[in-house]
Amino acid sequence: MATRINKYLSEVGYCSRRVADRLIEEGKVTINGEIPEIGTKVEEGDQVEVKGQRIEKSAKGKKIYLAFNKPIGIVCTSNRREEADNIIDFIKYPQRIFPVGRLDKPSEGLIFLTNDGDIVNKILRARNNHEKEYIVSVNRPINREFIQSMSNGVQILETITKNCFVKQMGQKKFKIILTQGLNRQIRRMCETLGYKVRSLKRVRIMNIKLDIPTGKYREFTKEELLELNGLLENSSKTYD
């Protein structure tokens, strides 16, 4: 059965559909030697290549799901040519995987890696309202006004952030739970309110909590994966 090229690349574990579309737009994907358009379908027997490398479905077909405690300074990209301190080279996992979303270079904590493109798309869609929890320290004491402003939405990137849960944990520390993932969202929110982030750690994504040392990874447990799939059951796989 014919499969759209972006779906094909996500199903074989090469990258997410969004990244696949970007690679297609950049002319780095070919089908039988021809550069396809977004939406072109792959037929049985077609030869697919990305950057000159033949891409085929694995005979094993095993889905990989990893929880990784990202150190500060590591970049969440699967493009090893563009970034020396990339997450893929750091982990050195023996099979092709890619990160689910991003955690910026100065930040640390939980990030998922997988070869399952569908789960990537489900988790990343903001409208699916999947929770991500962070512990944040800032440069000066916070107050009730700061907590209320962060909770009720802050204007950044020409939009107002969604309402979210924020709780003070110390004089300069707070917990925040987001259901959207704007670029550098927490840092931008704090800057708008006159604060600078000193440390930012993601400690939970949906039902999976950070419970491993910095720089280490582990596979999801069967119970975690079962619960995660339950949470994702009604999620949209499409993206805007």
Keywords:
single chain; 16 strands; Alpha-Beta Plaits; elongated; alpha+beta; 3 domains; nine-stranded mixed sheet
Question: How would you characterize the overall build of this protein?
Answer:
- It is built from seven helices and 16 strands.
- With 240 residues, the protein is α+β, with helices and mostly antiparallel strands.
- It has three domains: 3-55, Structural Genomics Hypothetical 15.5 Kd Protein In mrcA-pckA Intergenic Region, Chain A (Roll), CATH 3.10.290.10; 65-126 and 209-232, Pseudouridine synthase I, catalytic domain, N-terminal subdomain (Alpha-Beta Plaits, 2-Layer Sandwich), CATH 3.30.70.580; 131-205, Alpha-Beta Plaits (2-Layer Sandwich).
- The strands form four sheets. Strands 6, 7, 8, 9, 12, 13, 14, 15 and 16 form a nine-stranded mixed sheet that branches.
- The longest helix has 11 residues, at 222-232.
- The chain is elongated and about 60 Å long.
- 28% of the residues are buried.
